[in-house]
Amino acid sequence: MRRRRFPLILMLSATLVAGSWAANSPQDKTNLVELKKGIELFESVLNQSLAQTFGGPFETLNQARGVYLPGYGVVFSFAVNLTPLRNLGPFSSALTAKEEQVEREQEVRHREKAVNVAEQILGDFGQTFNQLSPGESVAIVIHTVAAHPGKVERSTIVLSAEKKLLDARLTHAISQERFAQKLSKTEY
User: Fold this and answer.
1) Taking the complete model, does pTM exceed 0.90, yes or no?
2) 112 to each of 5, 121, 146, 169, how far by Cα in Å?
3) Which of 40, 53, 154, 165 is 20 to 30 A (C-alpha) from 130?
């Protein structure tokens, strides 16, 4: 009985060692190193675009950050303040109905600006991730925050493009407008 177990244990050990060598091969490490460089570049471009678009302090609530999720692709996220700056001190007057309407319209414009920036950066720089497999995607998650008297409204917008859509944009097989239309968009 023991003689039969030894070859089985030996084969199992050899399989595990070979698997660990394959998992730690230089090719895999190089891909992750290159992927990390691509993530850092995309973060930099996205943060610069957000700073130029929103300009003022407190309009973007954090820097865009990216992460690679094996099997899914690359995901970036950032948060945007939709509420216009105003004096909220104890002696400030309440907003009129007209002022509240104007504020809500500004919030909608800020939300649209954030989505437009994300769409443009995905279309222009999504090809940075040529290490992704055909089934993987690049996504940008936009968290929005709007402060109103007595409540804070939060929402999330997710824009996602599969690698084949990014490749089509890279080769100019589709225009930026068509690319934006084909993006997967979810808002909640």
Assistant:
1) no
2) 65, 14, 14, 22
3) 53
Q: Is 118 within 8 Å of 110 (Cβ atoms)? A: no
φ and ψ at residue 30, rounded to 5 degrees:
-60, -45
Q: Summarize pLDDT for 25-40 with one digit per residue, the tens.
A: 444 444 889 999 999 9
Angle, vertex CA 94, rays to CA 88 and CA 100, nearest 5: 95
What's CA 156's distance to the chain center, in Å? 12
Please give the distance of CA 37 from its chain centroid, rounded to a whole number. Answer: 15
- Tokens standing for residue 158: 């997710």
**b/e map 100-132, b = 16+ CB within 10 Å:** eeebeeebeebbebbbebbbbbbbebbbbbebb
Amino acid at 32: L
Q: How many residues does the chain have?
A: 188
